[in-house]
Amino acid sequence: MTSSLTVSIGQCSDKGIKPENQDFYGVVTPKEPLLSNKGIIAAIADGVSSSEAGKQASEACVTGLLSDYLSTPESWTVKTSGQKILSALNSWLYGKGQHIESGMPSMVTTLSAIVFKSTTAHIFHVGDSRVYKLQDNNLECLTNDHRVWVSNEKNYLNRAMGIDIHLDIDYRSIALDAGDIFILTTDGVHDYLGDKKIASLLLDNVSNLERSSQEIISTALANGSQDNLTCQIIRIDSLPDLAANDVYKSLTQKPFPPDLEKDQILDGYRITSEIHSSKRTQVYKAIDVESGKTVVLKTPSVNFEDNPAYIESFVREEWIGKRLNNKHIVKIYGADRPRQFLYYVTEYVNGPTLRQWMKEHPQPDIKEARELIKQIAAGLRAFHRLEMLHQDLKPENVILSNDGTIKIVDFGSTKVAGIAEITTPIERIDLQGTRNYTAPEYLLGQPGSNRSDIFSLGIITYELLTGKHPYGNALGKSDHKVKPAKLQYQPSNHYNAMIPIWLDKAIQKAVNPAPKQRYELLSEFISDISKPNAAFLEESPIPLIERDPVKFWQSLCIMLVISNLLLLYFLL
């Protein structure tokens, strides 16, 4: 029997003694697949009454977060999604607030939000609203009030949405258990009720959360609350608990296709040839009989028919490809007709792999090589923007089409940050590339980052220009763990004298064994291989022939003329 994430909700809000209610709140529980991929989100906001548009600010924050969060890429982590949305909302609020004559911000609000995804709660907080957790009858406050007290009676908010162009928002994540109860309140509630009283009122009506929230509000009012009051209560009723057998059953609804031969037709695709075969997959060139379009079919290997981790990984490849839309990444086509077997369809790229091209063009012109690297980086950047790591970038996984366009292929090792947050009973395959192109941190069992893909791109750049590897075969040995400190970089211009020192320095930084010493962004690497970085010039003065070739040859010619004149003088 399978179960999913389910919650019960009770919420109540009251303007209290104020003329209007400037609090705002909301909860969204989406349907599948968003329920699994994005989760349930709840938010509460308290518009600052001293601002001119506190009510508008609180409503804009909550509605904006609830709607925009579910529209963020499913590949993003909850933290990334939340922070990007809140930063954008904060900028909007701050901009609106600068239009009043007094110069003081007019759209300011607190905000506390929780995203329940899989078996984890992700909490975002700024201001003095609060998030509590009730577990085993103990109430724990999970947030810190962003208040500064100037006296026993007077305090002010030092952090809130819309108060400053820069947003510093607290984030934390905690594991969930079925039965956990979370309470979100504005200061009109918790400033007039102690933690023990909130817990007591909740426990008295734990079977009816709506009544609990109403009792908490009415008690705070009776205790003299001077502000708007809002209380949200969310109970975790069940968590995703998929048994391995259930997951395996869902993954194996479609059988593996048999080995395919020329002219065989599979679901309307006629096989024309086999492109590649390995122990993990087979790749075929085919014709879509209906449209006449040439495509590629990728099928799983029957060696893994009873391996749920492999099947999940294979299915995920298509999921990843459908979310990447970039001319430098091979396009994956959706299913426009029923499929009888497990496989997926991609565009056909007519051209050699980068490996084949390199064999035919050893040590190409630097400008030509740079343009190829720029295209690979453009495709790789599309992965990184979606919080994906390719993790297996190598010349065999790059195709150069006949029109000169680079295409990155094979998503079998790609890691998706958003998927990694989803609990599964199946131990996921964490394929991390091919030795000699894999970043050292992977070989040490450490997590990767964008810098890991940049390392692989740096290796390709070096090999493209020299035909060699910067560390020889040190990363290719499988009989021992690599020791980054012992990796000795060989300058690329030792193998190709045409490579300027500044270009070599850029490559050396990209392939540094220590991740923190590498480029953080692809754009930085591309910039440094396109024009000299001043920092590299200071480290190693560039020879005149590289800084000013015309002046170098002019000077050399003058010296030769003088030496010839001197030689003639002595001979005569």
Distance between the termini: 106 Å
- The number of domains: 3
Biggest sheet strand order reads 13-14-15-16-18-17
- For the report, how would you describe the main beta sheet? 6 strands, antiparallel
How would you classify the quaternary structure?
single chain
Computed over alpha carbons, the radius of gyration is 31 Å
> Under the CATH scheme, which class of the largest domain?
Alpha Beta
Percent of residues in β-strands = 15-25%
How many DSSP-defined strands?
Answer: 22
CATH topology of the largest domain: Phosphatase 2c, domain 1
Helix run count: 18
* Shape field: globular
Q: Architecture of the largest domain in CATH? A: 4-Layer Sandwich
CATH H-level name of the largest domain... which superfamily?
PPM-type phosphatase domain
Let me know the average pLDDT.
88
Structural class: alpha+beta
Low-pLDDT segments: none
Task: Describe the model.
- This protein is an alpha+beta fold and about 575 residues long.
- The protein folds into three domains: about 5-240, Phosphatase 2c, domain 1 (4-Layer Sandwich), CATH 3.60.40.10; about 245-345, Phosphorylase Kinase, domain 1 (2-Layer Sandwich); about 355-540, Orthogonal Bundle (Transferase(Phosphotransferase), domain 1), CATH 1.10.510.
- It has helices at about 35, 55-70, 80-95, 185-190, 195-205, 210-220, 245-250, 310-325, 355-360, 365-385, 415-420, 440-445, 450-465, 500-510, 520-530, 535-540, 545, 550-570, and strands at about 5-15, 25-30, 40-45, 110-115, 120-125, 130-135, 140, 145-150, 155, 170-175, 180-185, 230-240, 265, 270-275, 280-290, 295-300, 330-335, 345, 390, 400, 405-410, 415.
- A six-stranded antiparallel β-sheet has the order 13-14-15-16-18-17, with helices on one face. Strands 1-12-11-6-7 form a five-stranded antiparallel β-sheet.
- The longest helix is centred in the C-terminal third of the chain and has 23 residues, at about 550-570.
- The chain starts with 5 loop residues before the first strand and ends with a helix.
